[in-house]
Amino acid sequence: MIQEYTQHLGVLSVAIHIPQAQSLKEKRFVLKSLKDRIRREFNVSVAELDGQEKWQTATLGFAMINADQRHVDSCFQNILSFLERAGDFFICDHSVEFY
Fold first, then answer.
1. Strands 57-66 and 90-98
2. Where residue 54 sits, what CATH number does that domain have?
3. Which one, 75, 80, 87, 91, has least CB within 10 Å?
């Protein structure tokens, strides 16, 4: 039987600008590589949420669930640091929500 426990679902949304992308194909190449690396390193779910038809902008969503909200928040901070160091794009905005 499943016992009562506390769970925290966190969602990190990040708007990015990819200045070197001159086509959707180039943008998708950058995003696919980025999403694959983040999935491997941080074990989070990743999806493109907005900007699918725009060449140089995208909004990515990262989701994680854990019993400890501090762990989720720490993981999101590490993802933001990773994105800042990636160099292929600029972070325009980000937000974190917990449910």
1. unpaired
2. 3.30.70.1120
3. 87
